[in-house]
Structures are given as C-alpha cells and as structure tokens.
C-alpha cells in the first residue's frame, strides 16, 4: 500500500507516557511521529485525570482551610460557589498545560498526527482522522503508549446522574446525596471535592478498607479527619444493582462475605463509578504488528520496555500496575533511550503513590502492612506531627511520618507520610531508598526548621536502631 509519512519513531498515544517518549526520541535525533486520537495532547492525566482533579482539590482545600480558620480567630464569610466559573478555571488549567505540550512538540519538530491508530503491519500504522480520512505511517521503531480506560460495571444503566471520573470532573451539578462506588484514590479524591462543595457522601467498597495499598494506620488518620464528609462508609460490600428512577438512582448492595447483613438499598442524586481502569491493549490491532497482548489487555515488556517484537516498545498504564503518570514518564525515557541505542533499563526500586486527599496520604517502597504479611524483618521510626511545631502552627497536627528499615542492613526500604503536603515530601524518602541510605544518612542530614519535611529526619532520629 501507499505510505504517507515515514519516520524513525512512531509513538502511539499522547498521554504522559507518549509525549515524554516522543520528546525524548526527538531530542535523541530520531525523526518522530506522535499519533493521538484526541485534539489535545496530554492523555488521561492532563485532560481528565491528575491535573483537573488537582485543580478542583486545591479549591476544596482552600475552602476547608478557610473554614478551619475560625478556630484560629479568623472567620470568613460562607463561600459562594459559581460552578460555571470553577469549571472554567479547571478547563483553563488543562488548556494551559496541553497548550504547553503543543509548543514543546513543535519546538522538537515532533510530527503530531491526529486520529485513531491501528497497526497494519510490524512497520506500519493506519491513522483514521475524525473526518474518516486515513494516513499510513511507516516506522522503523515504535513505542505503544495507548493507556487505559475506565472499567464499567455491566449492570449500570446510561443516565446523566451516573458518572465515571471523567464525568465527575465535568462538575455539572452538586448533588445532595452522592454515592462513590470504589474506595480507591480516584474515588476518594472526587469525594473530597464534592463533599466540600456541599454533597453528602456514601462510599461502597468490596475490600475490608478504603485506600487499599496504604498502611491502615495512615488510612485511619485520614478517615478520622474526614468522618464529617460521609454518612455511610460501606466496606466489605458489593454493589449489585443500579436503577435509574425518576426520584433518584436506586442502588442495591450485598455483603461481600457470605452470611453478613447487607446495607439497605439507597436513593442517590449522583453516583460515581470508580472501580478501576483497564488497559487499551486490545484496541490497537496489536496482532497485526505481531505484538502479544494478555487476556486482560496488558502488553508484557522486558527491562528495556521492549515487547515480544524487538523494535516495538510499550509503556505506561498499558504495561501494568501501578497505573501512574510518573511511572509512565520514567518508562517513556527508558524506551526512547533504548530505541536510540543507549543502554537504558527500567531499574527503579520504588514508585511512590499519593492520595491527594485532605490530609494527603503518601507512601513508597515496602509498607508496614506488606512487611507483616510477608514476614519481612523490619524496624520502623515514626514521628508524630503532634510534636512538629510547624504542623501544630498550621493547626494540622493529625499526621505522622514513618520510615521502614531493613532490620539487618538498617537501610530504609519504605516510608509513609499522612498529613498536609505529604505528596510533596515523599520524594525525599524515594531518593533515600534509591541511594541505599540508612537512618544515620537521613537523621544526620540537616533539614530546615520548622518544616513538615523535617519530620522525615525526625523519623530517622526516632528510630533507635542506629541513631543514638
Ligand atoms: P493515557 O494518559 O491513558 O494516554 C493514552 C493516550 O493514548 C490517550 O490520549 C488516548 O486518547 C490515546 N490513544 C489510545 N489508543 C489510541 C489509538 N488507537 N489511536 C490514537 N490514540 C490512542 N496518576 C498520577 O500519577 N497522579 C495522579 O494524581 C493521578 N490522578 C488521576 C486522576 C484520575 C481521575 C484518573 C482517571 C487518573 C489519574 N492518574 C493519576 C493516572 C494517570 O492519569 C495515568 O497513569 C496516566 O495518564 C497514564 O499515562 P499513559 O501515557 O500510559 O496513558
């Protein structure tokens, strides 16, 4: 067939993985085509994920903080919420960020081809634009970064009062009663926004606790501080029926454990389904390129992010958990560098996780609960923020900072922080783990006082094994 564009590198998908891969490829001298079906770059993260959610969470945090100021002797008037203006602000943030990516692509001469890409051979992809016109791109190497999509529950009907995370971020209405199905990070971040804007929230979660993956002692601190947001937190509970009635969305539940009592059915004004994301591996005709896709839609890769077809790489949500933007970006750089002939490998020891709730919950490496479950010999240092002058001055002393050490080597292998700005601080623990730091390295590093970040140094000092 005819070929419209030839390139060294074709990147499929322009999320954090794809744009990072395309930019690095171009920087390394490869002529690069970036295929994206949507009109803006940035993928899920910039358009309907990380960035818009944080724009709304910032507003929620300011509203909550000003309300708390009455306890500090300053009282603000009740906030007036102009939903249209708030939405416009959030959309403006997205526009600024995606527009910035356009400029970066142009500066690097990355050729952005808009349309739905489907492989037609191991060296060709066909891109169908919205108007139906087609272009064939021939490539020497490729990086697949097609990302993931929301998981739908089969029994949930179509109704404007039932949304996924994308719909929730559109902020069409502030309901009186809202149900969040799925007590993971995304569901709880949106619960934070909607509750601060005035909704009463219920959460239903199949597992025995919210925010799976984080240590229970951290989640407990978050949950205590957030009790006021929730009418019902239903754990170990399955959602088994969702019905769109004129008077509301009727939701029926079942206990996840046999014999346990189920909560009564409830009526809601808005239901957010946030039960996870599934990889887009089956939607790109990967088989035409000979690329193997698992039953669940993931693409397996080696340490250089190569698929079973050596000149085709894959990165991001599509290659496995954790589905996080910073993992995608890191993998993108490995893939692009390997494609350019560098000896690059994905050898990160840890990938941090952050719930941008209030307080934030952040963790990295081995968690205490995981160590217990696996019988690992660990020791820990915990610094309660009640002893942090800065946290007390902020009126936010509920948090703590915890470091996990290998009992034998005394090196730090994990850490968790619950408290305001935890997400901004967890990177220090990640650096310490990657560098093989021990408690002395961290504890004897002079941290500025008074900061929340010095709680990391204090947690190392508290740890008696080394620092006496
Ligand atoms: P994606 O961002 O999914 O991008 C894939 C791109 O490929 C899309 O633009 C898609 O249109 C395009 N594409 C797919 N198939 C084709 C095709 N056949 N042809 C053309 N184009 C195609 N992560 C964090 O690290 N921090 C957060 O705070 C955070 N918050 C989140 C909040 C929400 C509400 C959601 C939903 C996710 C959040 N995430 C967060 C996860 C983060 O968005 C993803 O991990 C990240 O976007 C994955 O990047 P990616 O490049 O793998 O894929």
UniProtKB/TrEMBL annotation:
GO biological process: 2-oxoglutarate metabolic process
EC number(s) stated in the UniProt entry for this protein: 1.8.1.4
Keywords: Disulfide bond, FAD, Flavoprotein, Lipoyl, NAD, Oxidoreductase, Redox-active center
Catalytic activity: N(6)-[(R)-dihydrolipoyl]-L-lysyl-[protein] + NAD(+) = N(6)-[(R)-lipoyl]-L-lysyl-[protein] + NADH + H(+)
Cofactor annotation: FAD; (R)-lipoate
Cofactor remark: Binds 1 FAD per subunit.
EC category: oxidoreductase
GO MF annotations, alphabetized: dihydrolipoyl dehydrogenase (NADH) activity; flavin adenine dinucleotide binding
Segments crossing the lipid bilayer: none
Similarity comment: Belongs to the class-I pyridine nucleotide-disulfide oxidoreductase family.
UniProt miscellaneous comment: The active site is a redox-active disulfide bond.
Name under which the protein is recorded: Dihydrolipoyl dehydrogenase
Gene: lpdA
